[in-house]
């Protein structure tokens, strides 16, 4: 092979490698922006699909626009600089814009001494807030547009170095693109998904910068403004390093503005965003600790005992025995804490998110001393109890092992987040409940947290109908007000024998309670308004794959958003 052929082969190899790297980066940017937008906008699934679709369209437009770039060599270098800068800073800019628009009304109120009920939220403030919340789509479009230029430019460079039209040029580039995208997806799932989002974006941007640097080194004679390009690469490398190490702290500071209370800890696991906030209510180190998943409140230390008392006490009080209990979800250990008060011999807790459970199991490992102390007081070290068997797995799959081993439980408690994501929908399905029925002792009860009967009435009713369709003959629901959540509801069912409310009504008092629930409160909780179930026949059952519960919950959530927006409009 002569020298020229070796040079062409080296150039080709480099360009194909660069294309594969950039394809992986492009796919990761789609995932990063999609997931962050889902957290910001609160409608995870539809936001992810919208963002990916928008970026694909933008990539197509970018491919058309690449024809306007005269010099493919210089154009490609400038392109990678812009993508790296936008990729590493977009999420910080979005977070800053949202935080700023949320902060403006408060700053004006403090400046002009306005009362809380007349904060300026309408007009230009509402418009700015709307633009900030939708800004992830703008950055997604911009990044997609720039990414779409990469293949046409590299294809042109290949033909320039070969000095002829290459018959399979685009096929080669698209082949490298597809392979690189697949590798990028694998890197996202195995590595970046569990990283802080700012670190993941900075790391991805560094590969754009590396690709641009390799290209610049190899095709140095073809470039103009070479010193400027080298300088910009150096500056951008410094920016990426700073964001990698400081970006998460900046995002946490911005998050402080999005929550009512001070954010004391925030982190992203493979499955969700975790946030702890704190509100000091006196000068004597008394504080309220709140815990959020993906921006949604999971518990508040001020009233979580009400929720957990209703979740646990009726199920265990109505079951014949309390020796062997199964908890699905509840990785924070609070339901487990209440179960342990009944002195069971064994408790099995199944939760998917090991990182979340490790925080509540050993809070001093990541939380500040004061917050860790608060969490320990709440959990009472329940996750470290020797009677507890912790299983880090998807409950939908894990219960099959219990069935295969012919295990049975005296009572089952399902403490899962609301079905705000399709992945959770399967854990509210007929299939899942039917398999739980196989695990429940004949004289035991199952209890399920069932979202709000006020804010998501159809989703609440669907839980009961789904449980009945799964083969539970006696299904009932009850409700009460939990101040941090509002009106909340639970579903309880027996496998055979008397219905749950009948069993509970025969008790003179609850054997063990969290200190809130009494017989009278519990009996009253089974009473709903006369017309509450009048449309129950039209509420669908949630079969596996139907996404019924998810859709009903999302519709209710969006409806409530509309009511809140309408209220703010009238108010302002």
Order of helices and strands: HHHHHHHHEEEEHEHEHHEHEHHEHEEHHH
- Total DSSP helices: 19
Total domain modules? 2
CATH class term of the largest domain: Alpha Beta
The beta-strand count equals: 11
Round the Cα radius of gyration to an integer and report it: 28 Å
Compute the average pLDDT. 90
Oligomer: single chain
Task: Determine the CATH topology of the largest domain.
Answer: Rossmann fold
The CATH architecture of the largest domain would be 3-Layer(aba) Sandwich
Q: Which class of secondary structure composition applies to the elements?
A: alpha/beta
Measure the end-to-end span: 77 Å
Report the portion of residues in β strands: 5-15%
The CATH homologous superfamily of the largest domain is termed Vaccinia Virus protein VP39
Strand order of the largest sheet: 7-6-5-8-9-11-10
Q: How helical, in percent, are the residues? A: 55-70%
Can you summarize the main beta sheet? 7 strands, mixed
Would you give an account of this structure?
There is one protein chain. The protein has 572 residues and is α/β, with parallel strands linked by helices. It folds into two domains: 3-256, Growth Hormone, Chain: A, CATH 1.20.1250; 303-570, 3-Layer(aba) Sandwich (Rossmann fold). It contains 19 helices and eleven strands. A seven-stranded mixed β-sheet has the order 7-6-5-8-9-11-10, sandwiched between helices. Strands 1-2-3-4 form a four-stranded antiparallel β-sheet. A hairpin with a 4-residue loop joins strand 1 (262-268) and strand 2 (273-280). The chain is elongated and about 95 Å long. 42% of the residues are buried.
